[in-house]
Amino acid sequence: MTTAGEARTYPFSEARGLELDPTYRALRDEQPVARVRLPYGGEGWLATRYADVKTVMSDPRFSRAATVGKDIPRTTPARQQGTTILSMDPPEHSRLRKLVAKAFTARQIERLRARAQQVVDELLDRMAEQGPPADLVEGLALPLPITMICEMLGVPFDDRDRFRAWSDQLLGVTAFTAEEIEQARAEFRAYLAGLIEQRRRTPSDDMLGVLVQARDEDDKLTEDELVDFGITLLVAGHETTANQIGNFVYTLMANPEQLAKLRDNLDLVPSAVEELLRFIPLGNSAAFARVAVEDVELGGVLVKAGEAVLVSTASANRDAQVFDNPDQIDLERQDNAHVAFGHGVHHCLGAQLARLELQIALKSLLTRFPTLRPAVPIEEMVFKQGRLVRGLSALPVAW
Amino acid sequence: MTEGRWRVEVDGATCIGSGLCVGTAPDHFELVKDTSHPINELVEPAEAVRDAAESCPVEAILVRNAATGEVVAPEQ
């Protein structure tokens, strides 16, 4: 181990598939809050233990708003913009979140179950007609969450090719140039502005319509906040779940005994989804640093006011202090309090929607295609590179 | 002196320990073994408490007027 004063280069390595760099484990054991140096913004702290990660995400002494416009440690050249919900602290954050929180409660999301099932059934029908083989990414993983979030927001599904490209670029880390990312952001904002103008001419009761009303009638948010909120909801509403559907199925196929266990007992689907959320590191690296607004003692070090702290939720989810046999997949795991959706005020707004989509996708896929298997050797599956989140370029399957 | 005060309840069986309330209103909620509890059941009216109840993803927080029992948050 290096001494506490010496910063490690971070990310530790270019992510390979869904593997988690072993350095996290070493740091959890020996240096739970460690100095790291990022490609942009210099040095900061990295928290790798479950308890510290949760503290940083929920203690108001660690601020997201304090990162806005600053040269803080990060993996991308662009500095944090201030008009997105992810860059706000309470009470500003609460002002925006409250506008849509109701639509994402467990109770409201449960009402979408029948619609999600219908979407999945239609997608699997099409796969069955056209295959085997079939690409599960294009056939199921992408269209399911895109359809659901489009219908909630009121974004035309037919525009998906356009916003998918922008979304992919916005989540680029090294895959695109800063100019390409800025261009994508500008085009995405113009597109959202167009949808917003439509609602000003013809009011609607979809989520974009509700947000436009909140702006125009109650002045609850600024025009920039409105546009960025639309983008955030649309991007976060599909990129994460789409990649995880592919990652889940890939992980099960790479562990055939787990796949068989789940297929033979579909009652395990809810706990299996939680376990795969815990086990699979969706993010390529820690992102969205917080800045301490006062001196805070954390994991045995003193984080000084103004210093940045990154947290690795993927590492927290493998913390042996909290999870027995953390590097093993246990589809029946109980008391699985993982932090895959984050913790604190930025806890994923769409968590319940993601759970619904992941549960229905897995269950329906294994019911419909009980002999599901990879159509090419599993080690030949190709993951996208240079993105904020991990996911497969394609997932060829047969049955 | 409970007039005007709010009574805060958390349904521990429904709570998923997201930490939203703790982050939103740190003076009013705490997590004990991944389940939220109000630090005080009777509180002076505070926007942060209302925000926490409105933001809870499983609607586990109920805020009522202590004197009348009328629901303050979440809005129905």
From TrEMBL, chain A:
Is Kinase found in the keyword set? no
List keywords of the entry alphabetically. Heme, Iron, Metal-binding, Monooxygenase, Oxidoreductase
Q: Which domain of life is it from?
A: Bacteria
Checking PROSITE patterns in the record gives: CYTOCHROME_P450
According to its UniProt record, what is one Pfam family this protein matches? p450
Question: What Gene3D superfamilies does the database record attribute to this sequence?
Answer: Cytochrome P450 (1.10.630.10)
Instruction: Kindly list the GO molecular function terms attached to this UniProt entry.
Output: heme binding; iron ion binding; monooxygenase activity; oxidoreductase activity, acting on paired donors, with incorporation or reduction of molecular oxygen
- Report the leader peptide range: none
Concerning PANTHER family, the annotation shows: CYTOCHROME P450 YJIB-RELATED, P450, PUTATIVE (EUROFUNG)-RELATED
Q: Which family does it belong to?
A: Belongs to the cytochrome P450 family.
Query: Mind telling me what this protein is named?
Result: Cytochrome P450
Q: Taxonomy-wise, where does this protein's organism fall, top ranks first?
A: Bacteria, Bacillati, Actinomycetota, Actinomycetes, Pseudonocardiales
From TrEMBL, chain B:
Q: Which residue ranges does the record assign to the 4Fe-4S ferredoxin-type domain?
A: 6-34
What are the GO MF terms of this UniProt record? Answer: 3 iron, 4 sulfur cluster binding; electron transfer activity; iron ion binding
Record-annotated membrane-spanning stretches: none
Q: List, separated by semicolons, the cofactors it needs.
A: [3Fe-4S] cluster
InterPro entries this protein is in? 3Fe4S_ferredoxin, 4Fe4S_Fe-S-bd, Fe-S_cluster_ET
Q: Which SUPFAM superfamilies match?
A: 4Fe-4S ferredoxins (SSF54862)
Keywords of the record, alphabetical order, are: 3Fe-4S, Electron transport, Iron, Iron-sulfur, Metal-binding, Transport
Biological function: Ferredoxins are iron-sulfur proteins that transfer electrons in a wide variety of metabolic reactions.
This one is known as Ferredoxin
* Organism field: Goodfellowiella coeruleoviolacea
